[in-house]
Amino acid sequence: MAVEKKLSPLAISLLQPSDKNVNVLKKIHSQIFSSSYQEKFFTDSLECLPFTSMALYSDFAVAAICCRLEKLPSGKSTLYISTLGVLSPYRGRGIGKKLLANVMKLAKEDQKIDEVYFHVPVNNAEATGFLKSCGFAVEGHRETIQGYTDNCDPVDCHVYVQSVSDWVAPEGVEIEEI
Amino acid sequence: MMKGDQVLPSKEANLFKQIVKFYETKQYKKGIKAADQILKKFPDHGETLAMKGLTLNCMEKKEEAYEYVLRGLKYDMKSHVCWHVYGLLYRSDRDYRQAIKCYRNALRLDKDNLQILRDLSLLQIQMRDLSGFAETRQQLLMLKPNNRNNWIAFAIAQHLHSSYDLAGKILMAYEGTLEGVPVSERYEHGEMLLYKAMIQEESGALNSALESLDKGSDQIIDVLAAKEARGRLLQQTGNLTGAEAVYRELLEMNPDNYNYHTGLQSSLGTDPGSEITPDQRATLQAAYEDLFEKYPKSTGVKRIPLNFLEGDHFKAAVQSYVTRFLQKGIPSLFSDLSSLYVSTAKADILEKMFEEAVSSLPSSDKLPWCQGETLEEPAVYVWALFYLAQHYNHRGASTKALEKIDAAIAHTPTIIDFYLVKARILNEAGDPKAAAIVADEGRSMDLADRYLNSEATKWWLQADQVESAQDTIALFTKDGDQGNNLHDMQCMWYEVEAGNSHLRCERFGKALKLFKAVAEHFADIQEDQFDFHSYCLRKMTLRTYVKLLRMEEHLHGHRFYCMAAFGLVRAYIGIYDQPIALEGSKSAVSAVSQRRPSATPGSLL
């Protein structure tokens, strides 16, 4: 970008996907991610409500966050964030941040969840900055997986883990209820 | 048969009264029992036989019903009861002409029977026997002048008969008989006054109508209707200043009612819908600038000037008009503006405007005509693209239209309206199959949306994919019983579209069935007015009632009826022209001889 434009955040509301509009979720994924997601990915994500959600801007969806709840032997659960994507024209306006913060807020309210984790491709430099701005401790990743293939093409990934209790919401991520 | 034979002793006479009561209270089984009791002793009693028949008719035993009623009539031709019952039987079969004949016979025997007269009047108005209706209503009024409804109904009869003067006089005479209006009937009285003004207006007695409205102003409850009538009347009498004042008051109540705008424009000396002079244009422009000051939130006040403004004035107005639509992402912008396209100059201006917007938005985030530093949100660009796609499609430039809609979908693939517009473009470009696939893609993105479901169904039918259409529409019908359900809901767009698709595929029988279903709906709609003849009178909704009658008279001019009628004719011709299978079987030959005569054009009519 030649000239840095000052873009104001966009107002959004949340929409929980259901079997009635799961195709919108699929559209967002096929538009944003190069790898193709299988049916199973979406059924799993739909089972993880209210964490999995879409962002509505005016009255159409422009972004989505998909999650999966993994049960631990201790009886507790870990929340895995599988995808987070914003349609390109709507990026840089705080939408992804709001979606992620909302998931963290929900996880904090859930007694069973201590940790949230996710994979970030090693070559994705933007991601670290984004995570930092979302209040994540990104000093170190837990491990690096070579050729990670969870519903996507093989790619080397860092695994990031965020403790729920340590997370503090950054400013300006409240979603106004309509 | 002597009349004397038909007189029952008092015990049986009482029983007979019971039968009538049982019939009226729908206790049919008890009615039959009582009738049988009389018939055991007097098997030839005509009126009892007739009443038993009438009761059986309500128990869905039609054949037996006719049998009994006819037997009753045979034994007692001189009984008005038997004739009345016979008429009721025909009426329940919707054979009104026969029913009228029966009632007339009944009245010959008992000329002042109020019940029969009332029933007859209902049939006469239903059949639009206007002079007969007027006669019957006059008779009823003379028999019972203290009943309000009889006055009103007689006035309606004269009004429908175009005897405006008489109709007005009847209402005035009726008013004269009133000694004050009870509070509980104030609304009805007001309606009567408004109806009187309506009759006067239609007769051309405009000043009398105005006078009636003025005189009744403190008794009329529907103030809005009275005001609207005043505006119209002042306009027609040439009192433009008066009309203008009234229309301004009405706009104060609702600045988005287009009728008021039309009224105001005429009172300002312009005829909406015809060419206007530059002077008139200047007058209107000034008036609307003034209205805009007063009602800045009204969409109508902003939209209407686009119709009469030209050139740079138009450009400035339309720019500010579309800005709000684009910023709010209102998908209907194009259909709102499409009526402007009768003017090529305006269409050209719009084309240039939107092209400029689409090329400047991605880099500047600004609409070219907007001053100031505010940056537009990203959706403004995609809505402008969406508009251009429809614009080019409207002007017949399919390729450009497709280009724009594809760009819009690539930008934001989650806006479902885009898929519907793309389907329309593809269909108009001559590829209905591709259109259906795109529309179905849109539908799949919100399975809870009936509108999307119907749109997809429509495009499947346009593509002659009847099975896909049936599967799709069945998603929103009850229990998968889609055929009956759609028929019960009088879903005519589907029946017409599906019929046309069958026609294109030469399945004439199936087409015939669907088009006939549409014709049946219209028969039902016509039939449905029957209840209103008495209801509207009772409720005194007289203006609306007269409008209903007039609507019913033009019912068969409705778009769906016309489409179904054309379809029916085509289907019959198709059947007539269809080559007969030449398998040499006898049945094929006999099929020819059976079919040909029945399908001659004469039998269509």
From TrEMBL, chain A:
Q: Which Gene3D superfamilies match?
A: 3.40.630.30
| InterPro entries in UniProt | Acyl_CoA_acyltransferase, GNAT_dom, N-term/lysine_N-AcTrnsfr
One of its GO biological process terms is: mitotic sister chromatid cohesion
Keyword terms, alphabetized: Acyltransferase, Transferase
Q: Name one GO molecular function term.
A: acyltransferase activity, transferring groups other than amino-acyl groups
Task: Give start and end of each N-acetyltransferase domain.
Answer: 10-153
One GO cellular component from the entry? Answer: NatA complex
Q: Transmembrane helix: is it a keyword of this entry?
A: no
Q: Does the entry feature the keyword Flavoprotein, yes or no?
A: no
Q: Which CDD domains match?
A: NAT_SF (cd04301)
| Name of the featured protein | N-acetyltransferase domain-containing protein
UniProtKB/TrEMBL annotation, chain B:
UniProt keywords (A-Z) are: Repeat, TPR repeat
Pfam families to which the protein is assigned, alphabetical: NatA_aux_su, TPR_2
Q: Where are the TPR repeats?
A: 80-113, 224-257
Q: Which GO terms describe its cellular component?
A: cytoplasm
Domain of life of the source: Eukaryota
| InterPro entries attached to this UniProt entry | NatA_aux_su, TPR-like_helical_dom_sf, TPR_2, TPR_rpt
Provide the protein name.
N-alpha-acetyltransferase 16, NatA auxiliary subunit
The species this protein was found in: Cymbomonas tetramitiformis
